[in-house]
Task: structure prediction
Amino acid sequence: MRTIIWKDGVVITIDQTILPDEEIWIEMRSCDEIAKAIKEMKIRGAPLIGVAAAYGLALTAYHSNAENREDFLKEIDISADMLKRTRPTAVNLFWAVDRILKKAKSAEGDVETLKSIVIKEAESIAEEDAVVNKMIGKHGSKLISDGDTILTHCNAGRLATVDYGTALAVIRAAWEEGKRIKVIVDETRPKLQGARLTAYELMRDGIPVTLITDNMVGYVMFRGLVDKVIVGADRIVCDAIINKIGTYSIAVLAYEHKVPFYVAAPLSTFDLNISAKNVIIEERSPEEVTYIKSVRITPPGVNALNPAFDITPMKYVNYIICEKGILSREDLSKMAKAHHSA
Ligand code: MRU
Result:
């Protein structure tokens, strides 16, 4: 089942802010609506944000009344800028938008030709995501043994992608191969993607899942209850993994307890030309911390911090799983060096 669908100038997706109470599919007809949905996290998860942004440009193209190539490309540029201002950390958004811009600007032809090129490229980005995630699952499941208990964080599942997920792709593939695995997921405050979304997805697939609060990770590892950790990523830079806030603490705990720590992500999440110090970590509203859903849980007016992501230095990462296979830290630094010299 696809999480996002393009149908004749309409983009249809699940409103992830309402899950798991209800699965409501929303329709978007303009790039503005897509940008708003990304900002409000109705659409979330690095790969899905990238695909939604691509479809945002496809909507601009589809509904464009531009009479010439210059005006059309100007409209696409304006939409691209708007999308790039939604969320700064996940690189997939920038990757997808730039890929479409490049394709459109280098193409020959009239407005109608350019329109179909933009729409086709967005469709390819979506299609590729689904294919790549299956490959991530297939490669990553080699790291999983029968009987493993795997800890995951946030939601790197079908909901965060077009289909199948990244970290959850590995879990799904291992389960489909008949490995009797169990999953532990932490709540992932403040937006509760683990409790709301990962628990929902895994329960629907019949994969055994146990929920813990974020501050229980150390104790469950101390008790020996976790065999492996698998998380997704929002950006993989040459010296670190950028992922949902809380990932770094889990990685340090895994290191201390000698629990292997794996990251599953497509190459569209790789940004090896830069290092962690160049990444903008999104700061969201303090109200996401002082409220749970619409209930305030703090004294009124208390100060709160809300960085949405954190930085996990590469030394804590045992392997990165992508569509190419299983990469070691050494493989990654070779790739980074090749990028630098390219
Ligand atoms: O703020 P979110 O919910 O968009 O953050 C999502 C994550 O951090 C995921 O772990 C990451 O995007 C990988 S999803 C395949």
Q: What stands out?
A: The domain at 4-135 is CATH 1.20.120.420 (Four Helix Bundle (Hemerythrin (Met), subunit A)). The pocket of MRU is lined by residues 44-47, 90, 154, 156, 160-161, 166, 193, 232-234, 243-244, 308 (CB under 6 Å). The two ends are 38 Å apart (CA to CA). The chain has two domains: 4-135, 138-341.
